[in-house]
Structure formats: structure tokens, C-alpha cells
Design goal:
Layout: E1 5-14, H1 24-30, H2 37-47, E2 55-63, E3 68-72, H3 77-84, E4 100-102, H4 104-114, H5 123-137, E5 139-141
Parallel strand pairs: 4-5
Antiparallel strand pairs: 1-2, 2-3
Helix pairs in contact: 3-4, 3-5, 4-5
């Protein structure tokens, strides 16, 4: 029989730069997982050394015997969109003030990269999700 899962911890960390301080220490420490902090940081940095500086979502699975496993997902969609339009942040009023335009090629590229992390059955569904995120940032999609 497999180990029983008692919970999940979700974080967003910069690739290749996890250290046993904030924000990791308070999160793992509050769950009684301080003993795994160094190994988690070392393993995370090894897995993400090629993605240094990118903001990556991490899902940590916590088991009943206080062991952990983690999965690193692809870069956050909003960050990928902002990089494609060469902006630092989204619009404060996205329905009125537009900050840029995303090409269909970039939309498809981002959707393909994020496909495994999205709740979509096919590429068209993934493109709709990414397009919605772009609209919320004040980015238009070229026709």
C-alpha cells in the first residue's frame, strides 16, 4: 500500500535560487517539515539550474510519514506573456489601457509550453486560457 497524502503546498520560486530562508522556511516550518528544507532547496536548485531567474510554480506533496515530493511546473503564464510583449507589468486598467499586442505565433508558443499545466483538453482550449490571461493584463491578441 502506498503512502497516504496529507496535503499539498504550493509556492512560486525563482529557478536556481532557492535558499532555506523566507519564503521557504516559514512555509515548511509551519507544517513541521523543517528537516527537509536543505534537501528541498538543493534538489530544487539542481532541477531548475537551466531556468535561473524564471518564476516557477512548485507543488510539494506531503505524506503522512512527513516525507515530501515536489513537482516543478513551467513558468507562470502572465510572466511569459509580459516577456513576449516586452513589458515589466500589466495594465492597471486592462479593459481601457492596453500595454501591447501578442502575436498568434507567441500565443500558440506559450499555450504549447503551458499545455501540461493547464486544465485544457487540446491546444485550442489552452490558447483560450492564455488569451484570457493576456486580456487581464491589458494585452490584445492580433487578429
Amino acid at each position: 500500500m502506498g503512502k497516504k497524502i496529507i496535503g499539498y503546498i504550493k509556492m512560486q520560486l525563482k529557478g536556481g535560487s532557492a535558499n532555506p530562508g523566507p519564503p521557504i522556511a516559514p512555509i515548511l516550518g509551519s507544517k513541521g517539515l523543517s528537516q527537509h528544507m536543505m534537501n528541498f532547496c538543493k534538489d530544487f536548485n539542481a532541477k531548475t539550474k537551466d531556468k535561473a531567474g524564471q518564476v516557477l510554480p512548485v507543488v510539494i506533496t506531503v505524506y503522512d510519514d512527513k516525507t515530501i515530493e515536489f513537482v516543478v511546473k513551467n513558468e507562470v503564464s502572465s510572466v511569459s506573456i509580459l516577456k513576449a510583449v516586452k513589458k515589466d507589468k500589466g495594465s492597471s486598467v486592462p479593459n481601457r489601457d492596453k500595454i501591447g499586442q501578442l502575436s498568434k505565433v507567441d500565443l500558440e508558443r506559450i499555450a504549447r509550453e503551458k499545455m501540461q499545466d493547464l486544465n485544457a483538453y487540446d491546444l485550442e482550449g489552452a490558447k483560450k486560457i492564455i488569451a484570457g490571461t493576456a486580456r487581464n493584463l491589458g494585452v490584445t491578441i492580433e487578429q
